[in-house]
Amino acid sequence: MNVLGVEGENIREVDVTKINRVWTKFYDEGVRASIDYPVMPAYKILDDAAASDPDKICFEFFGTKWTYRQMKEASDKVASFLFSI
Fold it and tell me: Could you tell me the sign of the dihedral formed by the alpha carbons of 58, 61, 65, 71, in that order?
């Protein structure tokens, strides 16, 4: 047994579906341990969300809120920079 709570010496041997998700015990009641998400690139999910709900809150972290529009603009800037180098 390793720190993940599953058999396997090497991370490649670990069945990720059997990982002991100890953090889920801290979730609020009613919060699911996993979510269903579409099989598509993350940028496409962000593009779609920014197109349909640009002013909706994308995330909040320590009191800072970003909309999907802000997140897409920042993401596009990072992508442009990475493409340029």
Answer: negative
* Sequential pLDDT tens for the chain (85 residues): 555 555 555 667 767 676 667 788 888 999 988 888 888 999 999 999 999 999 999 999 999 999 999 999 999 999 999 999 9
Domain map (residue ranges) of the chain: 1-36, 37-85
Tell me the backbone φ, ψ of residue 57, rounded to 5 degrees: -70, 125
* Model pTM score: 0.58
DSSP string, 20-77: --GGGGGSPTT--SS----SS-HHHHHHHHHHH-TTSEEEEETTEEEEHHHHHHHHHH
